[in-house]
Amino acid sequence: MKRSRWIPLAVFALLAVLLGAGVWLSRNPNREALPSPLIGKPAPAFALPVLHEPGRTVTNADLRGAPYLLNVWGSWCPACRDEHPVLTRFAETRRVRVIGFNWKDEPVDALRWLEQFGNPYWLVIADREGEAAIDWGIYGAPETFLVDAAGIVRWKHVGPMSEATVRDELLPRLAELERR
């Protein structure tokens, strides 16, 4: 009888140890660095309308030939508003084409947002239904991808980019592309 009283305590202790081990093993000093299965692989194929010209479609093949930064955003995204000034300053350097990937947004809302905050993008494609985003592995906004001239994904950043992200992560990867 006394032995059965200890079983719940032992089960609780075992669960606590497992939970603690899981937390300890999942430590990651850079919480925004998530591995992407796309790194080193061709960018997913897409054919999406241009936000400002809905009758015009752009494909991933149309963007090959020069590197580009694909920035996923939406007018509904508060973090995109935080990132926008950083992205705008970077785009002004004209170091690489910055392509906007407007995700799950109403065109009128997206256009109003760009009018209000400015348009740093060389081109904005619209994935209103979010179907192309699935192939890219996009699950939130903002997310940013660096794609090289051959159409290979070289870098991914999840969350809003900061000046430090641009300086410490993006610029070194761009320099790598320029050396190739």
Automatic annotation (TrEMBL):
Record's keyword terms, sorted: Cytochrome c-type biogenesis, Disulfide bond, Redox-active center
PANTHER family given in the database record: THIOL:DISULFIDE INTERCHANGE PROTEIN DSBE
Upper classification of the organism: Bacteria, Pseudomonadati, Pseudomonadota, Gammaproteobacteria, Lysobacterales
Gene3D superfamilies listed in its UniProt record: Glutaredoxin
Location(s) in or outside the cell: Cell inner membrane
Listed name of the protein: DsbE family thiol:disulfide interchange protein
Main subcellular localisation: membrane
SUPFAM superfamilies for the chain: Thioredoxin-like
Topology within the bilayer: Single-pass membrane protein
Organism of derivation: Lysobacter korlensis
Thioredoxin domain boundaries: 37-179
Highest rank taxon of the organism: Bacteria
Family per similarity comment: Belongs to the thioredoxin family. DsbE subfamily.
UniProt-listed Pfam families: Redoxin
